[in-house]
């Protein structure tokens, strides 16, 4: 244990210094953000100026708001620079011959090193995630963005780092070359993370479904927003628009090759609902044409467009998860990555005991 710490202390001190710097920055700015949110943003509805207040609030400390995304790379970096060299460095330098011929067995040597490494990684990532989650809480509450920041909040990053470290250790054991093991760790970690976040996470539980008549809800800036039957914070897995025959004609609230929603004048006073068909009624053309950015102005235009859309009897089918599933998904993902880490650790231990000489 003493030797494991001596070889690891430099890397640990570097990460500790980084966490201290981040903690100081968050402690200096965080209380002010909470105070502004509680005293100004929460009460903006009574004063009728929420748009300007929230816009100003979201413009504060933009660097630190985006800095939280470093937590996406943090586990991968620890896996590369802490996990991969653990055994590969010993093999390259030849020091394993001395280490594995002492009174301590190679199994105990390996388990001790891994235990120190994993414990330090869990503590470091847990503290980093705690700081980011606490500092970002006013923005998350304002934006209803639990699922949007799922990967850099709460306990999920701890699972990522345990998996990343064990992936690095396993890569170092098998490849035996530090640089190559670091590269393999980064690539494999990215593949697994992307696969789970895009295809596995949404299968942790059965989603909810909402079917409704497709409408064009106009916003104040003239843009079109779909999925108006959902609540803020819902995680939309799929958003499909189907016609009367049940055929999907749009995905994620969009039509056509570019996924947009638009209307286009095609001559003779006719207008095409792009990707759907020709409108049966005439659409008054605003200045600049009928592009998406021009849909908002003019009540007559809005009424005509709504009549056109209603003619096609389109349905919007939404598949989503409510915010109440957030914490169960966090624990599911943590458990999944812990399980993968245990498998990798078992493979690495077996390889050290039986395949390395």
Biggest beta-sheet profile: 5 strands, antiparallel
Strand content: 5-15%
Tally the beta strands. 8
Spans of at least 5 consecutive residues whose pLDDT stays below 50 are 219-226, 287-297
Provide the domain count: 2
Distance separating the two termini: 23 Å
Class from secondary-structure proportions: alpha+beta
Query: How do the strands of the widest beta sheet line up side by side?
Result: 1-8-2-3-4
Name the shape in a single word.
elongated
Order of helices and strands: HHHHHHHHHHEEEEEEEHEH
| Rounded radius of gyration (Å) | 27 Å
Helicity range: 55-70%
Count of individual helical segments: 12
**What average pLDDT do the residues reach?**
85
Quick gist of this model?
This protein is α+β, with helices and mostly antiparallel strands and 357 residues long. Helices cover 59% and strands 11% of the residues. The chain folds into two domains: 8-53 and 65-204 and 323-354, no CATH class; 215-313, no CATH class.
Report on the structure:
- With 357 residues, the chain is an alpha+beta fold.
- It folds into two domains: 8-53 and 65-204 and 323-354, no CATH class; 215-313, no CATH class.
- It contains twelve helices and eight strands.
- A five-stranded antiparallel sheet has the order 1-8-2-3-4, with no helix packed on it. A three-stranded antiparallel sheet has the order 5-6-7, with no helix packed on it.
- β5 (263-267) and β6 (270-273) form a beta hairpin.
- α6 packs antiparallel against α10 and α9 runs parallel beside α12 (326-354).
- The radius of gyration is 27 Å and the shape is elongated.
- Residues 219-226 and 287-297 have low confidence and may be disordered.
